[in-house]
Every structure is written in C-alpha cells, then in structure tokens.
Amino acid sequence: MVINQASLKRDGVQDYVSLRATALFMTAYVIFMLGFFLTTPVVTYEIWSGLFSNIAVKVFTFITLLCVWVHTRIGLWQVLTDYVKCPKLRSVLSFVLNLLGLAYLVTGLFVLWGV
User: Would you tell me how many other CB atoms lie within 10 Å of the CB of residue 64?
Assistant: First the structure.
C-alpha cells in the first residue's frame, strides 16, 4: 500500500489520535489547576499573577489553548459533516465557528503573554 505523505487530507486514525492526545493534555491542565485551587487556601490577585508569572505555567497554558483549538476544529468538522447536510450552510458554519475558535486562541495569547 502506498501512502502519499504530501497530502493535506486527514484520515480517521490521525483524527482519533489527535483528539485523544489533546484530551489528555487538557485533562492534565485541569488536574494541575484543580491542584492549585485545592492547595491554595485563599487565591488573591498576587498569588494568581505569581502563578502565571512562571514561564512554565504560561507555556503549559498556551499549549493547552492550542490543544483546545485543535480539539475544537476536529470536533466541529465531525459534527458538521454528520448533521449539516447542506454543503453551503456547512461551509459557512465551519468558517464562522473555526474563526471564532481562532479568535479565542488569539485572545488567550494576548491575555497570557500581554502582547
């Protein structure tokens, strides 16, 4: 069997693995944040900003935002292709919702890094 590695098309296995990998990463982030809230008796602005002044937390948060975006893109594609039968409507919905997801990612980037 010949596999074209230059193709931009995805396959089901790649989507499956991507969804599971991003879900694991997002779960790890939720566990990290739960651990922070459970071990910190009072969360003040100083403690919160101190947490996010750490470069490792910023990178972890940014990677999690990227995982949310990838997870959302794949999920939207799957749901829209299954439930929206009109190709024009599906294209418009896909464009708008993916643009919204990208806007969330960019907003998170600005909030996180203060750009």
Answer: 20
Looking from the CA of 99 toward its CB, the CA atoms found within 13 Å total 6
CB 18 within 8 A of CB 74: yes
Fold of 13-113: 3 helical TM bundles of succinate and fumarate reductases (1.20.1300)
pLDDT in tens, 58-108: 999 999 999 999 999 999 999 999 999 999 999 999 999 999 999 999 999
What is the Cα–Cα distance from 105 to 98, expressed in whole angstroms?
11
